[in-house]
Amino acid sequence: MERVAHRVVLAWGFGRAMIALAAGAAGALAMPPFGVLPALAVSMTIAVWLLDGSPAAPGRFNWPTLRSAAAAGWCFGFGYFVAGLWWLGAAFLVEPDQFAVLMPLGVVGLPAVLAVFPAAGFVVARLLWSPGPWRVLALAAGLGVSEWLRGHLFTGFPWNSFGMALGDHLVLAQAASLVGLEGLTPIAVAICAAPATLASGHGRARWLPSVVALAALGLIAAFGGLRLGFGSVGEVAGVRLRIVQPNVAQDDKFRAENGAAILRKYLEMSDRATSPERTGVADVTHLVWPESAFPFVLAREPAALAQIAEFLPPETTLVTGAVRMVDPLPGESGRRFFNAIQVVGHDGIVLGSADKVHLVPFGEYLPFSSLLTTLGLRQFVNAPGGFEAGVRRKVLAVPGLPPVAPLVCYEAIFPGNVTPEDGTAGLLLNVTNDAWFGMTPGPWQHFAQARLRTIEEGLPLVRAANNGVSAVVDPYGRIVASLGLGVEGVLDAPLPGAIAPPPYGRHPWISALLLTFFCLSAAFGSRRV
Questions:
Q1: Is the pTM of this model over 0.90?
Q2: Does the annotation count 192 as an active-site position?
Q3: I need a surface site. Which of 266, 287, 502, 524 has the fewest CB within 10 A?
Q4: Is the pLDDT score of 372 beyond 60?
């Protein structure tokens, strides 16, 4: 181990860049669906050695030292994001005549931009650096800060935050009830970086960080085991859910001429017999269809609503993803479109609607549209002018269900930002369409992040995907029932009840408090040497 560390520390130029890139790529194996936690240990251990190899110079704000740290961090991040997000390229092949030429922007360009955050994290770590075991906390603080920034700046993109290395394992993920994903990140980095000290130092300073890391991991696992062991959850009385996962091909889904056939498919699948107790839609109280279920505006299609009304029994309510359209007001030039979840009663009347608040850049709207449209670019979803964002997150009232926190697709990945501020939500309802990404790790990563929200908030999750992972998950993250990726099917399940909000669900700022602790601890350690 000392020999490997020595080579990493002394590496320079192209060799140093390739080591950093490979270390970052290895860390991606700790993310869903692989969940190889030791891979992040390899990645973070090498990250410590890379920072050890930044040229030493007097003063903490020495430019050559910080430039070297930033370069290593960028290469590390680039490897991590290319290996973890390569599947984004599949979205560019849905309409290859329009987007295939732009695929390098998603597969290489986005990772190149996101790598700026680990570069900044390495710089922060280097500013807090010390030659002893405290440097493990410096890396945890630096990457914790940079991952927090990645989750919030420029609308945020916390996908595959390092804390998901713990969050992908149900027992370890229970710690998210205390500190959330943003708190798991510095903990995961510190635990996985600890073995770096085994290659240097003497006596206790050499092995103590690894012992502490193993003890911390053991305590997290013990807490999770106890929480799951004593975490009993009842069912909401009188609720019989049916989730439809139609697996409609993405290149067919948004063609207007397919609208009637797609609706027929939903109706046929919704009335399937799945057991002696579920002989069809008459045995269901709540029917859930996925995001953007139709290639038309449902509320503007009386014939479609009439078919749904004829189909739904009196005791059954439909909850579906749908596009909502608003006519222009006087002085406005065009209609406005919203990606929404809508509630349809048995009489075909739209009872309620909740608009998506957190839109996907380039997917649902085009940033800098006045400039980019002149270059012939548009967002992936071909709504005129793109979607508009909802004003605020609100509870969606669904007859017979607890107050619903509606989450359309991407919205489920944001810790601490999935429920209305009034705290009245009784369940998370996530509709999505992961068919954009085919049979890749992307949909599994999406589901894993949505699942972690249940642990953070103490709320059950009902998730309907066109093609992805449809599931019902209890407030401890335990999967009650699910349909896997690429499966066409119907999922029947009860609705688990909610539990008392855990500490993170009540006080999301706890994660910031923990991150501050890591920063102060690293700063204290750096001043002891």
A1: yes
A2: no
A3: 524
A4: no
